[in-house]
User: What shape does this take?
Amino acid sequence: MLFSEAQCLILLLVLNFTDAGRILMQMKQRARDVQLQKAKQQLLTVGLQHVKEGRIHQQLDHFNRQDDNTFSQRFFVNEAFWQSPDGPVCFFLDLINCTLLHISSGHHVDMAAEHGALLLAVEHRFYGISIHPDGLETENLAHLSSQQALADLAVFHQYISQSFSLSRRNIWISFGGSYSGALSAWFRGKFPHLVFGAVASSAPVEAKLDFSAYSNAVGLSLMNEAVGGSEKCVSAVREAFGAVEALMFRNVSQVAKDFSCCQIPKDQQDQVELMQSLADIVMGTVQYNEESVLMSISDLCGVMTNQSEAYEEEREAYHRLVQLSQIYRSSSEEPCLDVSHEKTVKDLMDTTVQSERRTARQWTYQTCTEFGFYQTCEDASCPFSGMVTLRSQTEICLELFGITQNSLPGHIAFTNTYYGGDDPHTLRVLYVNGGVDPWKELSVVGNRTDGGEEAERVFIKDSAHCADMMRGRATDRRSLKTARQEIERHVRSWLKTAQQEEKRTE
Assistant: This one.
């Protein structure tokens, strides 16, 4: 077996968390909950006796040798499949609430079972319960960065190598999705002596302040007939948002009533919250198409164009968007649509560490200090409301952390300089992207070369965000099934190359 001849340590980084809107974040959490629910059956099959929880003390600041402060980072180990000592190792970094379920289901677990791998899961610093010991005050978030997180991985690499007596022959392959997909690629780029190859699924490796391309990509996906979209659908969405915006200036109380808002959005900040929330419903549907989060693009377009049997009555676009909002609230069991900007700020100002699922404050800090990713709608091709501007999106940085809008471009430029943006010139990184996923706009999808070699990539024409990382289903599109096979082929190729290089050095 190839894996027994050239041992492989597979680093799986699953932090598919890149969304900023309130509802979009909630839909992301729902996607995770669906995945975890599916994982429970697999966990029952594996059994709990092979799963253990542990802690490692990490430096708060890896780049200051005079600072000896630490925090406790949680991780899990699953030895159910491991063929010791030659079996590979799958390493899973989770952003929100790392649990043993995260190492019991997914494409990586299927490969681990097939190849006798040890499974590991570890939380990203300052998320889950791996929190700064003094809480989430702004001064304590100073050490929350992707650079520090990569250093955590390097230390964890050393810790696991010592704990399991791993050697130079254990070949590391990293996997990740969304933000963790970027970390996977960056780990390979910054620590090439530790990781031999990297798979980066739906990875936004390019930081972007004004990410207007996100909304534009959503519009194109709504037109994609292969997934149930149409020009009529995107036109209806555009018309609906225009109607909401127009009515809001004439009769905001009527808009609040129609969309069952928790409060009347009287000032502009609340109105922007409303428009962002409505856009989130559409954007989340596109981003997680066919992943059982809310509905599919086909379902959404059925509502917006009156093609669904359940919505045969001819209604204007405005009321069809109202219906879409009702579907969201019903599925999420929310009695009303919260559009209070003041409440949003208050929630993000909460610095307590009691909730393991709290992520919004930390992620907002990272968008302000590293990535941007602000999904604006000032471009004429955006199908939503032009009220969602870069200024309205970035005001939160000053409100929460005292970070001025003028400083943001410098933060974004540093990130791209440090990692290479969307042209990183790093060998043996496989970029996997779905054609429906808006985040592909910040990943590597073209033919990029370094040293004459073509960048490795898999493009799944009709697939959504990180869909390739889930366990295969009978209902998966053929393109998605083929993509998983292609990922496995790349990993085997890297392992074969590593084996050959190892033999030459013996």
Summary: The chain has a mean pLDDT of 85. The first strand starts at residue 8 and ends at 15.
